[in-house]
Structure formats: structure tokens, C-alpha cells
Amino acid sequence: MIHTPHTFTPLQAPLAQPAAHCFVFRQHEVLLRDADLALPDAHTLAALNLPRAQTVPVGLFDAQYCEAAWVEASTEAPAGHAFQSMRSLFGVVDDGWLGVAGRAYQLAEWARTHRFCGACGTPMAPLAGERPPQRFAARHERGRLRAHAGRQRAQPVLERPGTGAALPRPGRRRMA
Predict the structure, then answer these.
(1) Of 9, 41, 77, 156, which one's alpha carbon is 20 to 30 angstroms from that of 32?
(2) Average pLDDT for consecutive 10-residue bins of the chain (176 residues)?
(3) Cα–Cα distance for residue pair 112/79, rounded to 1 Å
């Protein structure tokens, strides 16, 4: 079983220094150098032109800062690199490295799939001290958030003839 190594310290906020290691994911694959299965260097990362919004801090692994990033499915690997399936790396790379890579994948995939509010489409924004971004925009107040958070059920109704009033169907319990 793969575990995050004891030499790993998770981080919620990015550090000011450039990342020593950047795990770049395309769907379920990680970008590695062909020659030695190492992560891409700073020159290769610069060539990918990754927007800062597509990177997330992972933590410190052996005292070196790590972050994760994602690219679109149509992105081609730079020369001398290939996107490798995470499953293909079992037994090939160090288990500690693979544990951090798995954590990096989970963080990058979560950030990629949660960029917008599922209820209103507002872009998510990071909240200081918390890993998941929050969706509190001007029109999202704590009092109104409850309407988005709960699952709403359809209530069958009957229209009262001649009045235009809609009433719950007789014999049905009203769902709160």
C-alpha cells in the first residue's frame, strides 16, 4: 500500500520560492522525462506556459517545495518527455515519491474540477487558511447559501380552479 512518506509536510498556501518539483498532470497521467522518469525541469515548465491558476501547492517533500499543475487533454508532451500513467509507475519509482505524486494528483484534479460554483457558476476564490476554494461572491451571503446547498425536491401541485392559486396535491406530505 502506498503511503505519504513521513518526510512530507502538507501545505495549504503556495510558497514565495519557485517549486523544486512540479507534478504536471494530463487527465490521469503525469509528465516525466523519458531518460530517467524525473519530473520536468524549470525550462520545460516555462515552455508549457502554465497559468498560475492551474497550479496548487502540495507540500514539502524531503524539505523541497512541491506543487501540482494540470494541462488540457489535448496538450502534447514536450520533446524528451512523456505523459505516463500513474499505474505504470508502481514498482518502477520510489514508493515515497509515488505517494506524494498520488496526493498531488488528487489535489490537482480536485482544483481542476471545482473551479466554479455548481449552483451559480461563479468562479471559486481561495479562502485564507483553507485548502478548498470558497464560492462566496457578492450575491452569496451565508443566509442565501442554504438554498444552494440543499437538494431541492419537486412538489406536485394542483391549481385551484378559478383562483390561479397552486396548492400541494392532497394526500401528499410537504417536504421541508
Answers:
(1) 9
(2) 87 85 95 95 92 91 94 95 94 92 94 82 73 52 45 52 59 54
(3) 25
